[in-house]
Amino acid sequence: MSRFAEALPAALLVVPGPGGTVTFIQQLKGPYAGSWLLPGGGIERGEAAEAAALREAREETGIAVESCSLFAVYEFTGKWAEGDYHLLMFACLADRAYELPVGYEGHNVGEIRQARPGDIAMHCTDYQILTDAGLTAYDDETIARGLAEDGITMRAHRVGSTKRFIAP
After folding, report:
1. How many helices (H) does the chain have, and how many strands (E)?
2. 46 within domain boundaries
3. Does residue 98 lie in a domain region?
4. Alpha-carbon distance 123 to 130, whole Å?
5. 83 CB contacts (<8 Å, ≥6 apart)?
6. CA torsion sign, 118 to 32 to 139 to 90?
7. 141-158, pLDDT tens digit by residue?
8. Residue 1 in domain
9. How many C-beta neighbours within 10 Å does residue 96 have?
10. N or C: which end of the chain has fewer CB within 10 A?
């Protein structure tokens, strides 16, 4: 049985970059392998969600984000080659924009890019996440269509009032 078959707690970090870009990684493993996603991964035993998001972003992108804030928890369910998957994804937003370190090769990722959301073939789950973070404005129909095409059920549990990233 895959470790993804039971609810797997994970965390991601939305890391704005320069000029209205967002930091994306090309995932190598898991249900969304091959997709452009936001940096993130499993929460380790005893680790806080925000700490996991910061650690995963550093491992995958080389960016040492100083602080972040939790803005939502998403529940993803679907099927992939290894069977069913169920993710509980804690989504955090970096405190400011960061640039990628030159020449960094991420841990367990194919490529790393900072791109405007409309200029990269990002994964459909990122439509909702980036909209909730205040960085894009995808409409409900576009989000629902993308999720349906990929056979994903996504439930959003937004955390109270959150500070949204505002570009300088």
Report:
1. 3, 8
2. yes
3. yes
4. 11
5. 1, 2, 4, 5
6. negative
7. 999 999 999 999 999 998
8. no
9. 14
10. C
Q: How many domains does the chain have?
A: 1
Q: What is the arithmetic mean of pLDDT over 88-94?
A: 96
3-state class percentages of the chain: helix first, strand second, coil last, to nearest 5: 20, 35, 45
Q: What is the CATH number of the domain that holds 55?
A: 3.90.79.10
Tens-digit pLDDT profile for residues 44-77: 999 999 999 999 999 999 999 999 999 999 999 9
User: With b meaning 16 or more CB within 10 Å and e meaning fewer, what string describes 40-66?
Assistant: bbbbeeeeebbebbbbbbbebbbbebe
> Please, which pLDDT band fits residue 8 given cuts at 50, 70 and 90?
confident
Tell me, yes or no, if the pTM score tops 0.85: yes
pLDDT of 83 reads: 85
Residue type, 56: E
Q: Which residue, among 115, 120, 124, has the nearest Cα to 143 in the 3D structure?
A: 124
Handedness of CA 18, 21, 52, 62 (dihedral sign): negative
Closest CA to 72 of 157, 164, 11, 12: 157
* Beta-bridge partner residues of 93: 14, 69
Instruction: Kindly tell me if the per-residue pLDDT of 137 is higher than 70.
Output: yes
Domain coverage including residue 72: 8-158
pLDDT of residue 2: 53
